[in-house]
Specification:
Layout lengths: L1 H6 L6 H11 L18 H19 L5 H4 L13 H15 L9 E4 L2 E4 H22 L8 H13 L22 H8 L11
Antiparallel strand pairs: 1-2
Helix pairs in contact: 2-5, 2-6, 3-5, 3-6, 6-7, 7-8
């Protein structure tokens, strides 16, 4: 048991992935052209991005560099697979399984054409699931929750990027929120999103 504890991955991505999968049933075709909290990104493009990042971060966990890990595609340019309702959950589950291996968090990895320590790549993967899960929930009018440990991880990762992200960074400058705001709101705001965002708001 001691050895299992010592080698356990820092985070389990399953709760964040399951949150996204649980949102999919309510996303009918009428939602696909709707806006999301990411400027210029529709629900369709967001879903395509989630599918793409699931494949890319599975490869990153397995240390399998290639087209999926060497490409940083613009979210607005991504095209949703016609069978996304079937393929997206499978891709997310495979990503979760890959990051359950302690080896995924060790050594060097690669994602989005950037070389990263395995532990950092894993935290980035988790961050993507948390924030884009929130994006999808907000865009489609559904409730969202995240594990406190996941939100603390997201806050720590984004704080390390500073308050003035460089040009081309995937996140904007932090949005001010009260110090006593809910943990989820603080994590979302730290990514440059407005916690109170609503479609058409």
């Amino acid at each position: 048991m001691d050895n299992e504890t010592k080698t356990a991955p820092p985070q389990d991505l399953e709760p964040a992935a399951r949150q996204i999968i649980g949102l999919l049933d309510a996303v009918d075709d009428t939602w696909l052209s709707a806006p999301t909290p990411c400027p210029g990104v529709t629900v369709s493009a967001l879903l395509a991005h989630i599918g793409g990042l699931a494949v890319a971060f599975r490869a990153a966990a397995h240390k399998e560099p290639g087209p999926t890990t060497d490409t940083a595609s613009a979210v607005t340019e991504m095209v949703l697979d016609d069978d996304w309702r079937g393929t997206l959950p499978v891709a997310l589950d495979a990503m979760v399984t890959a990051w359950r291996s302690p080896d995924a968090w060790q050594g060097l990895s690669r994602a989005g054409s950037v070389d990263l320590p395995g532990e950092v790549a894993g935290m980035v993967a988790l961050n993507e699931l948390v924030l884009h899960g929130w994006d999808l929930a907000r865009a489609t009018g559904q409730p969202f929750r995240a594990e406190d440990a996941h939100l603390h991880s997201t806050l720590g990762l984004l704080a390390a990027m500073g308050d003035s992200p460089p040009a081309g960074a995937p996140f904007g400058p932090p949005v001010p929120v009260p110090d006593d705001a809910p943990l989820l709101d603080r994590a979302v705001a730290r990514s440059g999103r407005r916690p109170g965002w609503k479609p058409g708001g």
